[in-house]
Design a protein that fits this description.
Radius of gyration: 26 Å
Order of helices and strands: EHEHHEHEHEEHEHEEEHHE
Distance between the termini: 21 Å
Strand content: 15-25%
Number of strands: 11
Strand order of the largest sheet: 4-7-10-3-11
Structural class: alpha/beta
């Protein structure tokens, strides 16, 4: 705010255009100035109380290894803290490589109600495409050459816990549809099998890829994107974690 002695409308307009919220001409505007100061102080107290509450909630959780104190990072951790108690809510973590997406996924699991059940980590970019379906869904005996016995998949092993699909932007389109169906039906079928197997997990996905851009290019299913992005959390780059304003 700006304070002056001249009740001049042109002066007030110029001051506001220069960046001031208000212009008060004294002494006639002293009551309005007093009210403005009181309201501003109340807003500051409310913001401070909200920040203290959020910091207290974060202190109850363990975000080990996720370093930084920027407002953007704290906002991401606050968003994670709100979703942690909700065991069925799907989370999509985005951010550059090295920002701690897997660390945050583990924090969501191990601080939450599914902590006693498995945390199963699948890197969709590290497993060859021709093997990934069998790794995820498992297979029955004789499903393909070399399948000498039945084998549960990683999705099945995650039952009751958390399935973390890292680098999901690299998932082949054919597998995207099968995963979407499993999520919607809460059932899965092994490769070469017909038996429906219960599938109850909290799904956390992560990617450094711009999935919406991938959707526009036809490289990622739009329906799967919206199924994943129920709670989107963006982790800021490491270079931005100590100098946000």
């Amino acid at each position: 705010a700006a304070v002056g002695a001249e009740p001049d409308h042109r002066l007030a307009t110029a001051v506001v255009r220069a960046g001031a919220d208000e212009y008060f001409a004294l002494p006639q505007d002293v009551a309005q100035l007093t009210t403005w100061l009181r309201d501003g102080a109340e807003r500051l107290r409310t913001d401070a109380q909200a920040s203290a509450f959020a910091a207290g909630e974060r202190a109850k959780l363990h975000f080990d290894g996720i370093l930084g104190d920027s407002p953007a990072l704290q906002a991401a951790l606050d968003r994670a803290a709100r979703v942690i108690p909700r065991p069925t809510v799907t989370v999509l973590i985005t951010g550059e490589t090295g920002t701690g997406k897997e660390l945050l996924a583990r924090a969501i699991h191990y601080n939450g109600p599914r902590r006693e059940a498995p945390f199963v980590d699948v890197n969709c970019a590290a497993i060859p495409e021709n093997l990934l379906e069998s790794e995820l869904f498992g297979h029955e005996k004789g499903a393909f050459t070399g399948a000498v016995g039945a084998k549960p998949g990683l999705m099945e092993l995650a039952h009751g816990g958390t399935l973390f699909l890292d680098e999901i932007g690299h998932l082949a389109l054919s597998l995207q549809g099968k995963i979407l169906r499993a999520l919607e039906e809460r059932m899965l079928r092994r490769v070469g099998g017909t038996r429906a197997i219960p599938f109850d997990v909290r799904l956390v996905a992560a990617t450094h890829v711009d999935l919406l851009a991938a959707v526009r290019r036809g490289e990622f299913r739009e329906d799967l994107y919206y199924r994943l992005a129920v709670v989107p959390i963006e982790l800021p780059a490491l270079r931005a974690r100590n100098d946000d304003v």
